[in-house]
Amino acid sequence: KHRLAMLQVAIGDCDYIKVCDVELTMPRPSYTINTLDRLKKDYPDKQFNLIIGSDNWLIFNQWRDSNRIISDYGVTVYPRPGYDVVGDVDGVRFIDAPVVNLSSTFIREGFALNNDMDAFLPKGVNDYIIKHNLYK
Asked: Of 22, 37, 61, 113, whose CA is between 20 and 30 Å from 46?
């Protein structure tokens, strides 16, 4: 519930990004392939691509139907600190982008230590976390 609310705060009135709660309505366990298939069914006029960090790419072969995710949807791999990957895989795009050493763990630990995390979050999300006493 809070993650969904924080996403809504983060995107604000941006008209080209939409929050989708489809995973909250799906049976558990939740697998990425099931989510992508559901999105394709619900939004047949849209094209979906999975974006993951290079840390997840190293274990992507362990994901359910990983080959079908690549073939049916495509994967974009964004660099993460300490997880250098390059490759030439059909259906996979490796992004050459700045590596940012920022993670959800860093954010949660910062709040647990009462650090000011506002500079690391989209506008309004820091206030939401404080208001709802999250990550303490």
From this structure: 61
